[in-house]
Amino acid sequence: MSVPPRKVLHIDMDAFYASVEQRDEPSLRGRPVVVAWRGARSVVCAASYEARVFGVRSAMPAVRAERLCPQAVFVPPDFARYKAVSRQVREIFARHTDLIEPLSLDEAYLDVTATKTGLPSATATAQAIRAAIREETELTASAGVAPNKFLAKIASDWNKPDGLFVVKPHQVEAFLAPLPVGRLPGVGKVMERKLADVGVATVADLRALGGEALEQRFGRWGRRLHELAYGLDDHPVEPERPTLQISSEDTFERDVPLERTGDEIRALAGKTWAGYRRELQRRPGRIARTVVLKLKTSDFRILTRSLTPPQPPASERELADIASALRLRVELPADTLYRLVGVGLSGFAEEGEALAQSDLFAAGFELDAGMDSFAAGEAGLED
């Protein structure tokens, strides 16, 4: 007996932070709004659609945003207000299903294969949710409807802003075929270049290369790419996604040499440790085993260094000591200047599993100098 396909929604609030600001301050409506602190060290948290026309995007330096759009109105972020609106939106989701997987304050997956409301289709559910968001928050949201999460996420971006796009099961292969391979989850710029080297630019090209050739070249990831090219993905909507990393970061007022980052590392270790303790209260028994140091150079190069010691850090001081020591693994010239530093904890495992893993490292440390970056949670950036 075949199992019917899932019905998954991806709901994404439109320019969320900026839209909240425009809603609450009528004089901002229709104007290019940039949510960011002003100054040489600040980055853009969000930009209204009026600002995006000029090329302003989240995570870019605020000074660059100001050059691109001199008439932009800069508004300092108010995360308490954004979180309050996010809670409103999630209450709307919960009227329809308990299977809600939040990704950030402004987006979430919903499994609506079976709903509390008895609406006739996933499309009708998406329409009802968007209408309720508009009525109750005076904001707009875009939605994607599809048989799985990654397709729903692509679809929600299709008709932004304030749009709805549906990918039905029989449409999946035709929908994916012309898309750039970079639209597939896990295919970043490095993988795009590797695929371009073998003549692959679109999903259709990926299919033409064939599963066997992809697996020979890229191993298990090649097999996964072949599945994604045909829209195959069985990851469920997970209402209680476990925390993967807790981190804090900060930008210096002026670029500093590496040896002058020590005080900031210790201050950030304190913030990260406080977040870790809150996580332990929420999910007792989950231990973080790996310490991560993140640095951004004055020319915006990001590098991370991580260490999994034989015993997980047991105090704020231990976390700070390990993060500080990781600077010794940075092999850039001594005169390199840094604009940002961050401290994180990752490698979460259940306590018994963490202790078992510790035995594996009793004879030495595991070092990973190739991690890409922290999760974006602490940065407060919006896509």
TrEMBL record:
GO biological process, one term: error-prone translesion synthesis
UniProt keyword list: Cytoplasm, DNA damage, DNA repair, DNA replication, DNA-binding, DNA-directed DNA polymerase, Magnesium, Metal-binding, Mutator protein, Nucleotidyltransferase, Transferase
Reaction(s) the record says it catalyses: DNA(n) + a 2'-deoxyribonucleoside 5'-triphosphate = DNA(n+1) + diphosphate
Cofactor: Mg(2+)
GO terms under cellular component: cytosol
Residues of the active site: E107
Presence of keyword Metal-binding: yes
Residue ranges of coiled coil: none
Site residues, Substrate discrimination: Y17
Subcellular location field: Cytoplasm
E.C. number(s) listed in UniProt: 2.7.7.7
Pfam family, one: IMS_C
Residues that hold Mg(2+) according to the record: D12, D106
Cofactor comment text: Binds 2 magnesium ions per subunit.
Membrane-traversing stretches: none
Chain ranges of the UmuC domain: 8-188
Zinc among keywords: no
Main location: cytoplasm
Gene Ontology MF, one: magnesium ion binding
Biological function: Poorly processive, error-prone DNA polymerase involved in untargeted mutagenesis. Copies undamaged DNA at stalled replication forks, which arise in vivo from mismatched or misaligned primer ends. These misaligned primers can be extended by PolIV. Exhibits no 3'-5' exonuclease (proofreading) activity. May be involved in translesional synthesis, in conjunction with the beta clamp from PolIII.
Similarity field: Belongs to the DNA polymerase type-Y family.
Entries under HAMAP family matching the protein: DNApol_IV
Assembly notes: Monomer.
Protein name in UniProt: DNA polymerase IV
